């Protein structure tokens, strides 16, 4: 006869309890897998975006000074930045769209024709989140780079030689053309630089001009040089190189190069939600040739807490390098930079992924700079980290991106 006995209430409760515990454990495990997957996915995305943005910064530093003349043909005092008959003016005009709170970008203006520095830098008095700096070493650093190729305009990637002609009045001087189609044309705004030597054998690079203050070369519709002697070699021994600066569709050139500024700030809106509330964005910004203000900034990297810049300087060329902070580097002349500046060191504080409550940052402070040199960059204590990045700052995976970049075109 079959057993008709069922389960007791106690047995059912025990079985249900075991089932609930198993389901809870499975749910918790699944939740952890999802959280970890999301964290790793965000970290991978952050790393990819960071590499792309930092490579743009690396490119601009390596090409600093490229195409920048060492002096002007017709004057050597204050630079007349407004081309074609304008008055003496500033490289950058202070205006309402100043990019960085706590720093006056006009203090890094080039002012003299014989001292157009490939680099200039400064330190802000406000943090990335716009609060006043309390750290004794100062706040985030600000970097200026001058070259002809730092613009995102296609014209800025073009260059050519200007060949000599004994009869320039008949327009026989001509621009060397390449086979790949990247030729300078009437669609480009161009400068020409003469490479020559002084009587004592020192190299010179002179910005050629047509008259007192016109340094912009415009080719004809067929790509030919205009008639006359301006912008051309005066003898077969002269080496004249033409550099594209920007498209002809834009305004006349304000400067015979492009100025690019790098800085970190937190925008009023548009920050990614995964970023710590005290962090900002690394921007690349261009000075407008048309207005003397800034163009629309290009965001390069999210979730940035700080940027510090050091300059390796060898004054005696004996291998003994001094690390200069921004202010001391900017006090050097363009010639001193060309002769003695060896490397630029960039330190960027950021975090990988989003906040992770299961993670605890192990350190009590973060040094944004060379770990072997206390004078390099600055150290943020746990108290400062808490003030800048909230009390849960330890729940972020903080890291320092270190870039050591050798400028390769200071004497180009």
TrEMBL record:
Keywords of this entry: Membrane, Transmembrane, Transmembrane helix
InterPro entries (UniProt xref): N_methyl_site (IPR012902)
Membrane-spanning residues: 12-30
Protein name: Type IV fimbrial biogenesis protein PilW
Source species: Citrifermentans bremense
């Amino acid at each position: 006869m079959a057993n008709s006995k069922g389960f007791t209430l106690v047995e059912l409760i025990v079985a249900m309890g075991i089932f609930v515990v198993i389901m809870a454990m499975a749910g918790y495990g699944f939740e952890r897998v999802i959280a970890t997957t999301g964290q790793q996915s965000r970290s991978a995305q952050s790393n990819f975006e960071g590499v792309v943005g930092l490579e743009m910064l690396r490119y601009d530093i390596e090409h600093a000074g490229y195409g920048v003349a060492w002096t002007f043909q017709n004057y050597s005092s204050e630079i007349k930045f407004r081309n074609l008959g304008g008055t003496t003016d500033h490289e950058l005009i202070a205006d309402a769209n100043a990019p960085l709170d706590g720093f006056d970008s006009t203090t890094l203006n080039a002012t003299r024709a014989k001292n157009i520095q490939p680099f200039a830098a400064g330190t802000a008095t406000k943090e990335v989140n716009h609060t006043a700096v309390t750290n004794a070493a100062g706040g985030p650093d600000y970097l200026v780079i001058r070259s002809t190729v730092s613009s995102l305009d296609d014209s800025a990637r073009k260059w050519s030689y200007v060949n000599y002609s004994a009869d320039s009045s008949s327009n026989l001087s001509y621009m060397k053309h390449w086979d790949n189609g990247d030729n300078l044309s009437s669609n480009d705004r161009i400068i020409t630089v003469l490479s020559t030597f002084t009587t004592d054998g020192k190299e010179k690079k002179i910005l050629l001009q047509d008259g007192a203050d016109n340094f912009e070369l415009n080719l004809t519709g067929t790509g030919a040089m205009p008639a006359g002697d301006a912008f051309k070699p005066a003898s077969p021994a002269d080496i004249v190189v033409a550099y594209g600066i920007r498209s002809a569709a834009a305004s006349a050139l304000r400067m015979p190069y492009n100025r690019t500024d790098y800085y970190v700030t937190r925008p009023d809106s548009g920050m990614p939600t995964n970023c710590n509330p005290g962090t900002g964005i690394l921007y690349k910004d261009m000075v407008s040739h048309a207005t003397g203000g800034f163009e629309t900034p290009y965001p390069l990297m999210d979730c940035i807490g700080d940027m510090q810049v050091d300059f390796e300087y060898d004054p005696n060329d004996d291998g003994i390098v001094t690390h200069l902070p921004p202010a001391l580097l900017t006090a050097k002349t363009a010639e001193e930079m060309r002769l003695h500046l060896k490397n630029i060191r960039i330190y960027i504080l950021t975090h990988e992924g989003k906040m992770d409550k299961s993670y605890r940052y192990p350190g009590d402070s973060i040094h944004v700079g060379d770990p072997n040199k206390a004078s390099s960059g600055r150290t943020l204590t746990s108290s400062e980290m808490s003030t800048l990045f909230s009390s849960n700052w330890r729940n972020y995976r903080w890291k320092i991106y270190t870039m050591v970049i050798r400028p390769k075109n200071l004497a180009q």
